[in-house]
Write a structure and sequence with these properties.
Elements lengths: L1 H10 L2 H26 L7 E4 L7 E7 L4 E6 L4 E6 L5 E5 L4 E6 L6 E6 L2 E6 L8 E7 L8 E7 L5 E6 L14 E6 L8 E7 L2 E6 L5 E6 L4 E8 L4 E10 L9 E7 L5 E6 L3 E5 L6 E6 L4 E8 L5 E7 L5 H6 L6 E5 L22 H7 L11 H8 L24 H13 L1
Antiparallel strand pairs: 1-24, 2-3, 3-4, 4-5, 6-7, 7-8, 8-9, 10-11, 11-12, 12-13, 14-15, 15-16, 16-17, 18-19, 19-20, 20-21, 22-23, 23-24
Subcellular location: Cytoplasm
Organism: Sitophilus oryzae
GO molecular function: calcium ion binding; gluconolactonase activity
């Protein structure tokens, strides 16, 4: 009778129990939907695509929107490569030496200015066929014959900012410290490239903000990005400060390599040995985003594509063992990153030369005699350049008193060289 009585009580409240059942069902349904939602991929997040086949040591991506070409280099193979965005075809030419910093000319889109070992060269190449002509513009750092050019870019006025690095032993991968510098080169200073920052270990990433009053610069072993006040009219830098310190980001590893900037004035930095690129606010030094790349050694970045919203990323496989190459078989490729919700600005081109015709024998001899007239460096600079201190503690030393390696070229020879240079 008691059981029967309880059943009667239950039956007296059918509406209440119906509501309880509905609440339980609805709660389970919502939880299931949330779980399913969390499991679905987010297709609005960054997407990484392999754009090219691997090379040994890819570097220096440079987008030329006039041709829809992405230039890049395979440094130690001496190859200058182009990726045609429209045809998806990769072409290349091979030069003798370590090649870097390929930058098209402002007035002639078939002229490329590049570093070849420690010489600056202009070549005439349309990005597809053979090189038509080439010409050495200048050679730097006679005191460090095994150093070479590395990263470089043109500023808004077409001046070339390009740096060097010390000798890197191919077997031990040890770097000769303090043998590099950052140079500023204009059409009037081929014979006396101005040293802006020295000593430098591995001169790397370089970019300017949207207002063009700040310049950012990386000496890789320092693991820092330096900020300078920038005078666009004069091309002068001043007031250095640490903008970004990679060692303050516990979630990433590696060393800062190449660098670019987006329209929001955020820096995008390649992390060599870190398998990623990072987005950083250079004003606050805050890490904003990390994008993994399927290669351990990420070398540089550049916005490109018709809308400048693809971040092209170069990588290297040079330091990988045979077994590592098998498990990282895309290392050395150029990658494209999309869905970044930002874009870059058109690249600046160099305004140094309009052709790459080789001068006659006399001109070639004279153009390259500048090293014969190189004056000894001041003692304080020489000592700074050869000291064996920790690379990470000597990331930048300004030497304003040292304006040129070769500023004391005899007037007679200087006049002849300038005449020949202008003629050819």
């Amino acid at each position: 009778m008691k059981k029967f009585g309880k059943c009667i009580v239950v039956l007296q409240y059918p509406v209440m129990w119906s509501l309880v059942i509905l609440v339980i069902f609805f709660s389970h349904s919502v939880m299931s939907q949330d779980a399913t939602k969390n499991e679905l991929p987010n297709f609005d997040s960054p997407a990484v695509f392999q754009v090219t086949q691997p090379v040994d040591h890819g570097e220096g991506p440079m987008w030329d929107g006039r041709k829809n070409l992405l230039y890049f280099v395979d440094i130690h193979a001496g190859r200058v490569l182009s990726y045609n965005y429209d045809s998806k075809k990769v072409s290349f030419v091979t030069l003798k030496g370590d090649v870097s910093s390929v930058i098209p000319a402002k007035k002639n889109e078939n002229i490329l200015v590049l570093g070849l070992d420690r010489s600056l060269m202009a070549i005439e190449w349309d990005g597809q066929n053979d090189v038509k002509s080439k010409r050495v513009l200048t050679t730097v750092a006679p005191q460090f014959p095994q150093s070479r050019f590395n990263d470089g870019k043109a500023d808004k006025q077409g001046r070339l900012w390009v740096g060097t690095m010390g000798f890197e032993n191919p077997q031990t991968r040890q770097l000769a410290p303090n043998q590099g510098a950052l140079y500023k080169i204009t059409k009037d200073t081929f014979l006396s490239p101005k040293i802006e920052i020295a000593p430098v270990n591995i001169s790397n990433g370089l970019t300017w903000n949207k207002a063009n009053n700040k310049m950012y610069y990386i000496d890789t072993p320092s693991k820092k990005v330096m900020e300078y006040d920038y005078d666009d009219e004069k091309g002068d830098i001043s007031n250095p400060r640490v903008s970004v310190d990679i060692e303050k980001f516990p979630s990433v590893t590696g060393s800062p390599d190449g660098m670019t900037i987006d329209n929001d004035d955020n820096l995008w930095i390649a992390l060599f040995g870190g398998g990623s690129i990072i987005k950083v606010n250079p004003v606050t030094g805050q890490l904003l985003q990390v994008v993994p790349i399927p290669a351990r050694d990420v070398t540089s970045v550049m916005f490109g594509g018709p809308n400048l919203d693809i971040l092209f990323v170069t990588t290297s496989r040079r330091g990988l063992t045979d077994s590592e190459r098998k498990t990282s078989n895309a290392a050395g490729s150029v990658f494209g990153v999309t869905n970044l919700r930002t874009k870059g600005s058109p690249a600046h081109f160099v305004d140094l030369v309009d052709n790459a015709r080789r001068a006659n024998i006399l001109a070639e001899i004279l153009i390259n005699t500048n090293e014969l007239f190189a004056q000894p460096l001041p003692n304080e600079v020489s000592n700074a350049l050869v000291q064996s201190t920790e690379a990470s503690q000597n990331y930048v030393v300004q030497q304003p008193q040292r304006t040129s390696e070769k500023e004391d070229v005899p007037a007679f020879w200087g006049a002849i060289l300038n005449t020949i240079r202008n003629f050819f």
